[in-house]
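Feature request, filed as a ticket because there's no other form

It would be nice if the structure record came with a short human-readable summary line next to the tokens. Right now we just get the raw output. Example of a typical job, pasted below so the devs can see what we mean:
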Amino acid sequence: MIRDSMILQRYLEKHALHPSLLDPLLFSSIETIVVIPALMEDHLESCLLSLAENEDIDFSKLAVICLLNYKEHYAEERHVQKFYESQLKALTALQSTLPYTLGILGPMELKGKNAGVGMARKILMDEAIRIFCYWNKSNAIIINLDGDCLVSRHYLFKIKGYFNNANAKPAVSIGFKHRFDGLSSAEKEAGKIYEFHLNDYVRKQKKYEYEFAFHTLGSCFAVQAEAYCRQGGMNQKQAGEDFYFLHKFSMLDLLGEIDEALVYPLARVSDRVPFGTGRAVSQIVNGKVWTSYNEEAIKVFVQLSQDIDSLYEADDERYAEFLSKLNIPLQKFLENAQLDQVFNENRRNTADILSFKKRMKRYFSPFLLMKWLHFARENGFPDEEIGLFMI
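Raw output as currently delivered:
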């Protein structure tokens, strides 16, 4: 084992769920791996063909690995068996026609309380790490996509170009735009509403210069192999795994952004995960009024995260006076979130204001912002209804 891949090796020894599932000898020239979890996904072939239509890319250096997965006890259902028998046959026939290397894992049953898309992504990304570790490619790229997505013809070229930039971060969020082909008018309308909600949330954060304002879609990001391992790999949440994983990077200033829409997820009805596009579209189609987060609630949170740095050398009286001027709901929330304790500990344990700012920035994390917005909607900052005129 060459020293450069020791970080990858140590990660696999500590965190991998499975032994090697693919023969790494088949991937000797590979520098980029696209991973695609596919739970009963009937759009997977279209996704694979969309990747094959990419331009200005050396396909000999690209591999795509798909995990055909199903939930515990699904194997007992005949329609599941028939679906995967048919899909495996189709993928095997397609495999030899594609310009890149295609690896197929499964069908695989995911078991336990964590069985879901987070576990599926982890299995796939860890398999990519095994391949890159074997060939000593610690800076190789893992791209995450979903089986219902199509991609731009420049998708792979743009991602490669991003990482070739001297100022590139080791992880990047990729722009998206939902597509609506073959959907009902109700699904189209619902998909547009949900897309507005996603964009509006990030737009409001950027408006007030929140440092962690990024889209965090599981089908729309890429990461270098070593960086993935350094952050402990993908978590196994059944949903929201993308939010938690990508914000590990954003909070360390290690997440970049390709804001051009290169990924086109299908805005269809789905109940496969507890939240996300499929669940949101289902709820809107069934009559739920969808809302966007209150802009004023975002504003007061972000401004506080920026203004509190001025209190580094303040005495207790000035600190108390500062907090007393905040609105009452925010005061109550911060009391429960132990701001006083964190503030005082950070002030005691930092040698200068730059170190203090860094620690306080992490306190005002995307996770805390989300908790605040859920609290705020019940305490004076109601969510804002999304009207069709806004879309």
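Something like this underneath would help us a lot:
The domain at 3-183+213-268 is CATH 3.90.550.10 (Spore Coat Polysaccharide Biosynthesis Protein SpsA; Chain A).
The chain has two domains: 3-183+213-268, 295-385.
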